[in-house]
What does this fold into?
Amino acid sequence: MTEKLEELKGLLALKMCEGIGDITAFKLISACGSAEAVFKEKSQHLSNISGISPNIEDLLKSGVDWGCVEKELNFINNNQIKYTSILDINYPNSLRLIDAPPIILFYRGEITSLSQLPCISIVGSRTPTSYGLSAVTEIVKTLKNMDINIISGLAHGIDVSAHKECLKHDVPTFGIVAHGLKTIYPALHRNFADEMVLHGGGVITEFLSDEGPNRENFPKRNRIIAGLSFATLVIEASKKSGTLITAELALHYKRKVFVLPGRYNDKLSEGCNDLLYRTKAKPILSLHGLISDLGFRQKNNNININQELTSSEKDLIKIIIKNNKIGLDNLVLKAHLNIGDCSSLLLQLEMKGLIRSLPGKYYEAC
It folds into this structure.
């Protein structure tokens, strides 16, 4: 077995080991250098690790069913399931900062953008009103010109509505699920999950393949949604809604929380209004205000490119508008120009107030 598969085997064994959670598993991996090394480490070293139970060696020896580990390995290999561990470079950076980050994530799709672009979660009721659904439509439509990922839970209602709007507007979207990847729950959303994978997003879980959508899994799922996102938008939630768990976790992680206010006598606005009453979150009062509070600048994609521009300038600004934000090297390739001519055209467009330069030799339309 290759070194990479041996490490995966160690990660799965730690994940399955009864009596060992993510916090203990991370301490063991950090102290031993890898998950594989944990099971080869001498008992004396294991017992000397700070915060580790004295009976850790017994747990490692008796708490793992290695037949189940092999079964899980086969599932991953036979179904093209991808994974990342907390020690990997492509593990989402924002998730490392929460209290008990998962030691391993399983996923379909591509997760590189989770560390490259800011993530915003949109969550809410499973039985939303037309008011809530309309808000999701307008919010995603407004955010589509920003370089972001949108996160949700692939559940009925607000969650799947957010995913569907992202697919409509070509925004990368990731569904965090409370079960293993042997299935999709609800089954009705399997097609949406497949589309998300094909359009730059994906489906992510910390649960092993056979794990079903058990009740206790959803708060664990919610901590990943909150942990991945720099801002969480709550769109309709009753006072006992599980959505509020995500909001409270986001607040605990020092992330931004915004809520859609509602009428005082609407059951699905009670949770949102309560967060506002307790000054825990900011209200979404306007789309312009939301964009400003998130720290984005609305781009003007209705630039008049018929003003006094050369054909080369028009071609270049069309590329910039289409790509939202683009680096100089990529722009040179797409425009079929040498770097000197491209830089000269960019300067002219900037002087005319049509584009702005960004750090790292990136450009965007004004």
